[in-house]
From TrEMBL:
Subcellular location: Membrane
Lineage, opening ranks: Eukaryota, Sar, Alveolata, Dinophyceae, Noctilucales
Assigned keywords, A-Z: Ammonia transport, Membrane, Transmembrane, Transmembrane helix, Transport
Transmembrane segments: 6-24, 44-61, 81-102, 109-128
A GO MF term: ammonium channel activity
One GO-annotated biological process of the protein: ammonium homeostasis
Limits of the Ammonium transporter AmtB-like domain: 1-171
Family: Belongs to the ammonia transporter channel (TC 1.A.11.2) family.
Protein name: Ammonium transporter AmtB-like domain-containing protein
Amino acid sequence: HDFAGSGAVHLVGGSSALAGCLIVGPRLGRWETSHKDMFEPRDVPSILMGTLLLWCCWFGFNAGSTTSLSSAEDITKASNAVLTTTFAGVFGGTINIIVSLVQYKWKTFDMIALSYGILGGLVSITAGCDVIDPNISMLVGAIGGIIASSSAKIRTRLFIDDVVDAVSVHA
């Protein structure tokens, strides 16, 4: 069951991004320790704004997959899609904020991790957003958020240079 095209969009997109990263290779100086700071994300407000815009559009993507609102069943599917999309994004971001707070001993939290968590939660709920119970969508989003954030760290350890972390979020 793939209600909103999760396989066609996210699996294919993430796999294509990985293939592109491997074919193109890393940016010049990416893995040199003397240039490490040059490649860290700097424009955090723009990253968060992009995440917010994606999240807003995700509602149309998931709920719009009903293609009509002409029956009670369509309305139920669309409303469940909106609810599960909201919960998955919230809990994906929340779990990553909690993990970053623990990681930094409650002194600061990582806003990039928040973005990974939200997007990971949204990607993870896309396939079953019409049928998954809203309570379960919280767990799905939290797991998706952890996977997205963790896979970004694994990708870095494997020296795969993905500028926008499409592989980590979508695959």
